[in-house]
Amino acid sequence: MAEEKEALADSTPTTAPAPAPAPQEAPPTYESLNLTNPNNLGQDTWRRTGALAQQLISLPTGPTNGPTPSPFRPPASTQRGHTRSLSSSSTNSLKGKKSWFNFKSSASTQSGTPSVSSRTISEVRSTVCGLVRNLVVGPQEQLSSGSLSPAALGILQSCAEACATHSMSLSAILQEKFVESHSPLYWSIVKRPVKPYAKTTTRTENLLDREEVEEPEETDDSSDLLGALLSHAKPLEADTIAEMRLACLATSDQTTFQRLHLAIPEFSSIPGADQILLGAGHPADNITVEIGEGTEGAFAVNMQIPQFHKRMMISREIGLEFVARNRLWRFSFLITPDNAWYGPPPGSWCVSISLQEPSPPTWLDARLVLEDPVAGSGVPPGKVPTLLRLKSKQMMEAPRNGVPATQIVVALDENPAFASLQYSGSSYIPDDEKLTVKLEAKLRKPTQDID
């Protein structure tokens, strides 16, 4: 009998235990991408990030209609008899679309809708802030071209979807000052690439002894970082608008300043009456700044003012803002009010210029040139230009701590051609009712009058 058992044991085939399948690789975490370090955000990393932009922040949104597939469970470990399996919270995080971020929701509420825990909100916000910061830092190719790649736009869209899923405001996040004490909108203005300058084709000879000026070329800004952030940041708060004005002042960027005037109603100082006169798709005041050479801070400002006479008669002031020589200026056509303590008598048509906060003080020696609508832009050779002198009697200062700004106020009556602007049908206002003037200035102590 023992011999039969031994023979049976010898004839039974032995089979080695099958190896356990390797566990499925978990999605990478945000920290493993090492995106928070700007030095690691090279061209290859940026492209890899863009390729996965569509699944960037695909977060679980709770139960869906229809049957739910069984969650994946890795086999239990066979090492020394220990059994390990995924917890219920981990398996729930794997349901639905695969995600880089396994944020967990708290238990369901009484209505059956899963509530989002404060920890999840904090994690989503931290991730969105990190991604937006990296967009602001940007790769070198983005900084040189000024436009965002499709991958970068996809990342921003994924952030918007994640915030919407968790009832968060991406607009509020973009206006928070979490990037070196400033908002992403501020840095998107400061870091805009310097645009090339081209020689101007028209210029006035021998005005303020100024050198030939240069004017920036116009480019398409619709796909840059500023435009992308603005599309998700509206409505803007008053503090954000003030910070964006400071960014334009820091870089002396009139092109962006004018662009924001057109894109953001709150950024503009156009009163309601003027908006009605100009219409819904109003042709706003067009202001361009030219920068001269030399050491005296020369610049020129070209201004085109639509519906000039109607706006003056109804609003009694047309205020224009522009950035030049790292200062924020306000130039106005105005009718002196009855309670004015400065300048010409009440009811006088005047021009004024002043600094806006927080511009540094300066002297100003300037003159206003009235363009001849028949001759077009510029002054024809051999013709004496129509000028109105604007010069500061003391150092100009911006308003601070309740102290009003130093203003230069000059009545139009000092030159008959300028005085004619107060009458309808003036020969200096063409049929389209758009007045064209040019301010030419130097930041110097005024010299003697020049004929």
Automatic annotation (TrEMBL):
Return the Polar residues bias intervals: 31-43
Q: Where is the composition biased (Pro residues)?
A: 16-26
Top-level taxon of origin: Eukaryota
Q: Where is the composition biased (Low complexity)?
A: 85-94
Region (Disordered): which ranges?
A: 1-95
Official protein name in the record: Uncharacterized protein
Q: Which organism is it from?
A: Psilocybe cyanescens
Q: What is the lineage of its organism?
A: Eukaryota, Fungi, Dikarya, Basidiomycota, Agaricomycotina
